[in-house]
Known about the structure:
By secondary structure, the protein is an all-alpha fold. 77% of the residues lie in helices and 0% in strands. The protein has 19 helices and no strands.
Amino acid sequence: MPGFFERRPALRPLAHRDFRLLLAGSTLVSLAMPFQYLTQVFWVQKEYPAHAVLYASLLSASRGAAMVSFSLIGGAIADRVERRRVLLITESGSLIANAVIAALMMLAPFGSATVAAVAVFTFLAAGVMSIDSPARSASLPAAAGVENIGPAIGLLTVSNQLMMPLSLPLVGIFNGIFDPGRVYAGTLVVWAGILPLIAMLRYHSVGGAHGTGMLTNIRAGMAYTRRTRAILAVLSIVLIVQLLGMPVATPLGPMFMMDVLNFSSGQVGFMGATWGLGAFAASIAFTRLRGLTLRGITLAGLATFFGFAVMGFGYSRFIPLTAAFDFGMGFAFTAAMLTSSTLVQHLVDDAMRGRVLSLFPFSLGFAYVCTAAIGGIGQQVGLAVLVPALGWATVLGCVSVIVWNRQLLGARIRPATPKETPPEAANPAPAA
């Protein structure tokens, strides 16, 4: 007789032990990331008030440069090496890099030049996680079952976004009480849970990139993506949303609230929670409404709506309306990323899975790199002008992709038939 989780399609991945471990580890990572990103913004605002927008943008750019530099390599590694071993190594490296960042923020050993050292180690920390991300995403079919990819992505998104409305108000509160360096150091505690969880994973997952050089593997993945028009269209929309919309999430969104709306750090944290609540609502809704994540028209509509929400956020000066647009941004962005990930996971061949999925962090990294230039523009023209302009650009970019590939609107994937017994229950794997 099917168990509790097997009887509920949205929860079926939880019947798999390895997915539960992977989910718990990802949740802890998601708890630390908002603390770290926003705490760096507060640190820059405190230590370099005259150049806060520029320096916060540069830190985001260093994170993005690492993602651009290492994501494609990470995808090739995920298709060459046992993926759970990749996760253990990268999370250990992430702990070390973030510990150095915390020490630099607290001690400021280089005086006013400390921001440069923080940028260097932010680059290294983001590079490590750029190798982690493709391996983690490519592990889902082995950890949860290929027939459960959609619900698995949904549950990961739910857990990740549940952390955001919980953590963002706390970020503002803690940074109002403690020095930002101490707050950043406090995030290191989560790795006491992350590392043991990864060490307990037992699945076996390796791609098909064997016997050739890594650069050859990367070129093969890029060529495969270009040939597969549906995947290329999905990734094009993802790139537009991340490139033009993500700067509003961080770092320009918090800076906009402080400079244009005159918010305190605590108010920024609570306003940020509205994005988190929108993201959480989208996670719940799209995990339950599984069919929506398998349709191209869903992605097109969500991406366009996200652009309009950014536009409204930038124009509004009425705080409740600003909060509503912030909620809409979080909802649309999260739902669009969930839908695009689900579509690609179903469309891609397993031998290419790591390399194709690495294009998600690659495009996000490219967006972060461009944030430095966008932040420089914001420093000159003002965020009150820049933010709504980014919303307009997002809408126009999404419409252009839709016109270029109208087949995306009609694309629909038939979900696989779920199995009743988790693979590890039928064939227990040896411990790592």
